[in-house]
Amino acid sequence: MSTLPQSKHDSILHSASCYFNKVTWRSCLALASLITTQSMAYTTIEPPVPLSERALLVKQSPVTFHYSAELHSDLIWQGISLTSGLPGWASKATFTLRNNQFNTFLDINGYAYTTNPSASKSANTQTDIAYMMTQSKFGSQLLLGTSSTNQTKLTISQGIFTWPGSEVWEYTDLACTDGGGDSSYLRSQNPIKPVKSFDITLDYAGMTMAYSTYSTSSKNQSATESNEPISTRIWGDYYHIESKKHSLSRSYHYNLEFGYWNNTGQHLDFNLYIDFDNDVSATIKTYDFKGKNTFSDNYGVVFIMNYHL
Question: Are 258 and 279 in contact (CB under 8 A)?
Fold first, then answer.
């Protein structure tokens, strides 16, 4: 067996080692390039998106504001039509001061209002003529529990209802001298007096139970209760129960309402809520009102469009 000289043997080993090193480094570089390319192709690292200045202020502010505007095919308020079957509107604004488990709030609401008086009625019958009813309510809310979905809320508030620019009018007989017979006309009596309210509401696991009492200390002038305008006759103690909303799908929900006026009547409502997006929704309300005293039974379906801010 022949052997290579030592110098030649070392030269061959050195050449093989260099060749191996070149191949290895080239393979490693190629593999690293491939991994880097694939990573860049399929992995996108987004920088964190900071909250806008307005969103950050809203999140940190102890004061919140909610507003909604509504269009009604007939404005039904606590079972009573405020627009005499005509289309109407409602505007609702709430300012809330949050302080841990205790909130203070102010509600400022406006409602379309019309009695649509007839051309003639019996003498001494009164009607009110107004275009808007306002409600201002100030109160406090106590939050019980820690779960946002099952939290119990106790709310106590006082409020006042007014009818800006309103008048109470009275039908009066008019004897004609030209042989045309008798007729009636309206005679102004006085503005509609404000009505004060005291409200207690308990919200438990999405179900709401409420009690309201109303004070008409300065009642409108009228001969008998049957002759009083609606702005005076509807008031009394009012009890209200509203069930939790149940979902039919992501955009459809429903619930039930029951309300009882001790002097006026009672109503049962079924509400179907439709969410179009975060700002716009609709409500289809079917209601059945059973009147008492001077109020007649009424039932029907109304459509409501809601815009939320």
Answer: no
pTM for this structure? 0.74
CATH topology for 53-308 is Porin (2.40.160)
End-to-end alpha-carbon separation of the chain, Å? 98
> Residue 164 corresponds to which tokens in the numbers above?
């800006």
- Residue 76's Cβ-count burial label (10 Å; 0-12, 13-18, 19+) is buried
Q: Is 37 exposed, middle or buried (0-12, 13-18, 19+ CB in 10 A)?
A: exposed
Report the run of H or E that residue 231 belongs to, with start and end: helix 230-233
Q: Residue 158 carries which side chain, given as an amino acid letter?
A: Q
The phi, psi pair for 168, rounded to 5°, reads -95, 130
pLDDT confidence of residue 39: 46
Residue 294's pLDDT is 81
Which pLDDT tens digit goes with each residue over 228-250?
A: 777 878 888 999 999 999 999 99
109: left (phi over 0), alpha (psi -120 to 50) or beta: beta
273 contacts 289 by C-beta, under 8 angstroms: no
Question: In the structure encoding, which two tokens stand for residue 263, read together?
Answer: 């002097």
Instruction: Specify the pLDDT at position 64.
Output: 93
Burial profile 249-269: b = 16 or more Cβ within 10 angstroms, e = fewer:
eeeebebebebbbeebbbbbb
| Residue 138 DSSP symbol | E
Question: How many angstroms separate the CA atoms of 82 and 293, rounded?
Answer: 18
Strand partners, 298: 289
